[in-house]
Amino acid sequence: MSDIDTAANDVQGDERIQPITVRTEYLGRYQSVNHIRDLPPIYLDEPVDLGGKNSGPTALEATLAALNSCTAMIMYVLRREMKFDLQGVTFEADGWIDIRRIEMKRTGLKYSQVVPIADHYQKVVQRVELVTTEHGERLEHFKHEVHRLCPMHTLLRDAGVPVESVWTIRE
To answer: Are 105 and 86 in contact (CB under 8 A)?
Structure first.
């Protein structure tokens, strides 16, 4: 048993792998609605200029939001474990994607006929602004652990997406 107080200390190994469920209804065109637990419905859609109703983020925008939120949650856990001074944090993430519709308009090809430049994000840049008094090795260790333990960072990294993480400090 570890001296560090974590959520995993009171859970047995066979209890740790459990499913999460999202139920999705396709509503037409680019719009879908997602039902998660007892939360309000979450709509995913495309902007109007791309044929959607703009009723929610695109799936790729939602992925960037998940990356930022997941990073924040891991920071919260590590802040407690490491007694790290984290007074506030904000995130901004950009993902470079292949907008195949541009090639479709130029060539008249169908979506399925356009050879993708990138099947997913070509790269992601996440900017993190922390309010902290921490510096040096302690800050670098915190950053390394956040990236190592964040499931969304791992998911993108395992998919071969280059993820650049730029951290700035505001005291």
So the answer is: no
Residues 92 and 78: beta-carbon distance below 8 Å? no
For 67-89, what is each residue's pLDDT tens digit?
A: 999 999 999 999 999 999 999 99
**SS3 of residue 74 by DSSP:** helix
Annotated domain spans of the chain: 1-56, 57-171
Q: How many CB atoms lie within 10 A of CB 30?
A: 18
pLDDT of residue 141: 98
**Which distant-in-sequence residues (6+ apart) come within 8 Å of 57 by Cβ?**
44, 45, 65
Average model confidence (pLDDT) for the chain? Answer: 91
Q: Which residues contact 109 (CB under 8 A, 6 or more apart)?
A: 103
In this prediction the pTM is 0.85
Q: Strand, coil or helix: what is 163?
A: strand
CATH architecture for the domain at 57-171: 2-Layer Sandwich (3.30)
Contact present, 66 and 152 (Cβ < 8 Å)? yes
CA–CA separation, 85 and 29 (whole Å) = 47
First-to-final CA distance of the chain: 36
pLDDT tens-place string over residues 110-159:
888 888 888 889 999 999 999 999 999 999 999 999 999 999 999 999 99
